[in-house]
Amino acid sequence: KWYKSEKIRVGKTDFKHYILYHISSSISIIIDEACITMSLATIEADLNITAIETQWIMTIFYLATTMAAIPFANLGKRLGIPITLFTLHVLCAVSYLVGFFFQNLGMLLSTRFLNGMLSSGCIAIRNNVIAIYPDKADKQFIKKCQILAAATQLFAPMLTMLLIAKTHWNYAFLLIGSLHLLSAVLIIPFENPPKDKVKFDLLGSILIGVSSSCICLTLTFLGQLNLWAFGGCLVGSVIGLIAFYFAEKHHENAVLPLEIFKNPLSDIFWLNLINYSGNISFMYIIPQVLLHNGLSQIELGLVPTGAAVIGIIGAITVMYVSSKVINRYVLTVSYSLITVFLILTGLILNQKTWTILLMSVFFIFSMVSASNMTYPMLIHSVPPQFSQKVSGLPTMSRTLGNSISLCLLSCVQYLVNQYVDNFYFGFQCAMWMISLLFVVAIFITSYRLGNAEYEKNKKGFKISDIKQIKIGGENHEEQLLKEIREEM
Prior knowledge:
It contains 19 helices and two strands.
């Protein structure tokens, strides 16, 4: 067809022909997650609501993403990637443009649910685009995409916060909607890959969404000391998780493929989830503290720009170091540094602004180093023939980590502030609690994570540390070890 490009084809796409779509689709997500999160304090004051209610503006976005990501990814396989992405981007644009007009919490939450649900499809299918379209000779395609996404953070959040400061926070919705329209146009030239009549696991998607929502509501009601509602949601969470387990156990195309959800896949999934928990804690806590300390919206917009500069340096550094040293060594060091910096940042939250920003630099560098490693590790943690089964797991770990962490952070902050009349102490306790997750991450990388096949030429690689790979009753380990010994 005349509108299809010969240069954007499955397995033959050069990175330069993919750049524009990746930039436009990345910026829309970056603005939503960074700028709307940083504007929560302003939205709280504007709508006259509590902090524990305000965080639901982001939490409901992530919960909708958790519920819809994998069904939309499967829809893309059935209908075709370009046409599905085009439709989702257009619908996303409409949902954001409608949200521009709402100034009521109830209507805003309804819009945010639609934003998250439709955006999830764009993100999940884009993961599949990155997996199947690149030229097979380009082994660094995913890392180039990560560096490009980090580069867009140099200007996107800063310009958006400038727009918000000069106008109103709802203009972010107008900008995001416009970017989705642009993405819809840019996806048109992509070649249609062969369609796959994969079955939908709609029940599993609904159950994981309901279970996650119950967990988040449990934390919200705990923060409000509404014990009856807390108990009811806690029971609902347990029932939902049990039902989800049995629904997934025998499903051919499960949302969470239990057949392969074992070490190393399961461990890397939890590491990726912890990464997002740490990242969202920074995006939630630091802007509110800096605004309280007197920074303006425009000055606050410079924070993610500075973070992006550090992120690019971290991404390039980890690309080099991880090419020489096995992943688990690099991750163990990164998580150790993150834990230290979280504890120290918590201690100095009530100090001068420059000390908070300085500590944030060290935290972001370590955080980006870890995050840029676990994403490709998650995609490549299973043999190639099973890669389709794990394409939705990065999105699931991201949304679960973000939604549950936001509720946990606001719950801790709100509870502490009920008994301690100190603006900073609630945030400090929340930050120290998140640091405990990274202690768990250190344990996983030190004692659970092994070597991967593709690390055989790196320092620290041991054949004995390769984890046993068993999928569908097949043992791939003996053949794998034989191939590695022959190459070495």
